[in-house]
């Protein structure tokens, strides 16, 4: 791949999903609502012993720092994060890169397990309440590809809705999203008969 083909990533396109591990058979991972920041920092400490032939490096085990900030909200996800901290319950975390997809349309993602080790809540009187959640990750994070269900994709960017009633049979209320093929088209269809 030539350098001019390299795509860059923006922070807005990296989002986190979580789920209490005990709920893995009952529910899908949920998007943490209103994320403002996500810091993912896998690292391995190294030390060097100097010898007469040069330095001999030694490395420690992998440690992963994960910190997610978001606007505090009333949601199951918000409560599950606090439950992980208070009850020392394992939580699953997925970091999903919305702009990186494979040929099957799956998203590139990191998967890890751990616990919430800190949940800082700031409540300034002239600003939104915010939370800064720190995770202690167990073992080595795993890379892979995942499929987001349709409603998960809608959480990230809502879909066009018509003005009709939204029902189980008509999830867009009679609306149809604009597509590239619609560009420049006007009233090229025959008028409806009365």
Automatic annotation (TrEMBL):
Family matches, as Pfam families: Phage_tail_2
Region (Disordered): 35-59, 170-194
Domain of life of the source: Bacteria
Regions of compositional bias (Polar residues) in chain numbering: 48-59
Segments crossing the lipid bilayer: none
NCBIfam families tied to this protein: phgtail_TP901_1
Record's protein name: Phage major tail protein, TP901-1 family
Organism expressing this protein natively: Limosilactobacillus agrestis
